[in-house]
Amino acid sequence: MNMFTRSDKVLDQSTQNTNGAMPAREKAESPAPTATDVKRPYASPQPISDVGAPHARTASVISKALKITGQLESTEDIQVDGEVDGDVRGHSVKIGSNAKVKGSVYGEEVELSGTIEGKIEAKKVVLTSTAHMSGDVIHQDIKIESGAFIDGHCRPELGKSTSKAVHAAAKPVVAASVTPVRDKTPAEIGPRA
Amino acid sequence: MPALSRLALVKLPLGSDDADSSASHLGKALRVRGRLDTSGIIHIYGKVVGQITADRLVLGADGYVEGDVVANDVRIGGRFTGRIFARHVTLDSSADITGRIFHHTVTVAKGARIDGRMPWRPLNYFETLEHLREAQL
Fold this sequence. Notes:
The complex is a heterodimer.
Chain A: H1 2-7, H2 9-14, H3 22-29, H4 32-43, E1 60-62, E2 66-73, E3 78-80, E4 83-85, E5 88-89, E6 92-95, E7 100-112, E8 115-127, E9 132-134, E10 137-144, E11 149-151, E12 154-155, H5 162-170, H6 173-183, H7 186-192
Parallel strand pairs in A: 1-3, 2-4, 2-5, 3-6, 4-7, 5-7, 6-7, 7-8, 8-9, 8-10, 9-11, 10-12
Chain B: H1 2-9, H2 19-22, E1 23-26, E2 31-38, E3 41-44, E4 47-49, E5 52-59, E6 64-76, E7 79-91, E8 96-108, E9 113-115, H3 123-127, H4 129-136
Parallel strand pairs in B: 1-3, 2-4, 2-5, 3-5, 4-6, 5-6, 6-7, 7-8, 8-9
């Protein structure tokens, strides 16, 4: 019974108004408005998350059980605790301590506690004590905690034109990273990135 | 509805160990192109193009998935194009599906849009799915 009323819904209401069986069906259909009301909350992002999204506040979480082969791209924050074989682009990207990324990580801010085999390109880079970085770090501002592992170049070249980048690469890394960044106004930094 | 929630609680072999740490949340702004593999739960509110293997998949109302999904339990509230292979499938009223849904049990809310077939399969079909997946998808 239920099955029929459901599939015939559209016909019932529009074309079969003369049908003798209509009143009974009408009754069966009467909860219809509530059903469509139920639909509305689902249109907003929250309701389905009652199904059990513990990370509702964080924009995106790649859990430790998840492996992604391919690219991730977001305009919001990304927390990676699992494994990514491919590039990651986000606003603020955090690579957790047991996470592994094979590929490039781009963002405004990148915080690495896990492993990256590839490249980091970000305005602000933080390598925590458990970080394991194999590859180059291209940044404007970098913080490296004691214990972090880096096998690659740290280049303060982000947002600079290629000719400048060549010069910057020739300079001692630390000096180059600290001075130019501090001298710039945010307005100067902004459009280049 | 009680029957439905009981279904959702059924623990199946792939099983999630610790729900909190094995749950992945792909936010609204996230776009993924590629393959997703997990023994836990994935909540998708963004856009995914590619294959997904999970214990449980929840596709939010604004989410979009294009590709094949293999899971124990699937709940769709958003747009989906492709094939679903899951023991238990729940389609919310906001679901918009194009493709095939291979299932053992299915729940469809009034208002869900489905364009495609929904073939029933015995439970053992899903046990061999890991191999099937490699061969077919």
